[in-house]
Amino acid sequence: MRIVMMGTGSFAEPTFARLLDSAHTVVGLVTQPDRAVFKETASSRQPRNTMKELAVSRNIPVLQPQSINTPDGVSALQTLSPELLVVAAYGQILSKEVLSIAPEGGINVHASLLPKYRGAAPINWAIYHGETQSGVTIIRMSIALDAGDMLAQEAIDILPTETTGELESRLGPLGAKLAIDIVDRLALGPVIGTPQDKSLATKAPKLTKEHGQIDWSRPAVDVCNHIRAMQPWPTAYTYLVRSELEAMRLIVNVATAISAPIPLGGCGDIHAIGDRLIVQCGRDTQVEIAELQPAGKRRMSSHDFLRGNTIPPGARMAAG
Question: How many Cα neighbours within 13 Å face the side chain of 317?
Fold first, then answer.
């Protein structure tokens, strides 16, 4: 089967690599323009487009249109004469015209247990909301966002301290395995999918930097889930406010909910107890910050942070 892969980033790369080593013919890669690779995405930031490098090394044509849905983009895709489009984390919604180019249409490798978490950032939002399972769903593509019939699905447990980047690194190979199985089956004949239950659909919108701001009025478990969900991008951040000092922007990398809270005060109040940083959260809960990064400095432990910074009475974490 003649296949065009459409995708960008670490989640999509395992699927592309498996397709290249399969019995099928990959006739092209459609990926984001190089400059977009350096921008923030829903899950990760990559220093270069490794999928493009892999394609070039295998003499696979590469298309990088600003939008595949433009007349030029459609024309370029038509020249590849694909039978099937395989899409994973491409970052653009495909038009009806694009999907109609391939006789078999398109399948999408989506990093959630659909119909939950439709959208650009399914892994982030699953962790943010405290889900205990995630997975990959292969769907037949339709015009509606992530709403097509399900062709395959497999779940895995989300580990208690797992970040978005760590979970993505496990979901990528799983998606590749499921995608290859469906492509092999499609090459033999029609594959009947299962319609999604629309009443169970939830959204996973694209992240912005502002999504990283920590709300200390939320319970400690929710705050910790938020911190994990925002890694590696956009990262969870807050501001350390101390009297007579300029507010310090802090990225919080690792934090845990405390099982035996220490009496503090209002939400966001922070205390240094020995070399421990304790912050009051909502519903009379607390987190202990283990690793953080002051603006313009390296990532460090709370112990190292407290060697050069004091936490006076009345100090608190707050919005900027």
Answer: 31
- For residue 294, which of 275, 309, 312, 316 has the smallest C-alpha distance? 309
The secondary structure of 186-236 as a DSSP string is HHHS----B---GGG--B-PPP-GGGGB--TTSBHHHHHHHHHHTTTTT-E
Signed CA dihedral, 145, 60, 17, 228: sign only: negative
Structural domains in the chain, CATH included, are: 2-200 (3.40.50.170), 209-318 (3.10.25.10)
- Contact (Cβ atoms closer than 8 angstroms) between residue 103 and residue 187: no
Phi, psi of 197 (to 5 degrees): -80, 105
- Rounded to two decimals, the pTM is 0.94
44, pLDDT greater than 90:
no
What is the rounded distance in angstroms from the CA atom of residue 80 to the CA atom of residue 30?
11
- Residues 125, 41: Cα–Cα separation, whole Å: 14
Amino acid at 291: E
Q: Find the length of the chain.
A: 320
d(CA 191, CA 16): 21
Which residues have CB under 8 Å from 70's CB, separation 6+?
none
CA-CA distance, 264 to 281, in Å (whole number)?
A: 10
Give the type of residue at 17.
A
What is d(CA 204, CA 164) in angstroms, rounded to the nearest whole number? 13
**Using CA atoms, how far apart are residues 224 and 219, in angstroms rounded to an integer?**
9
pLDDT tens digits, 239-252 = 999 998 999 999 99
256 - beta bridge partners?
288
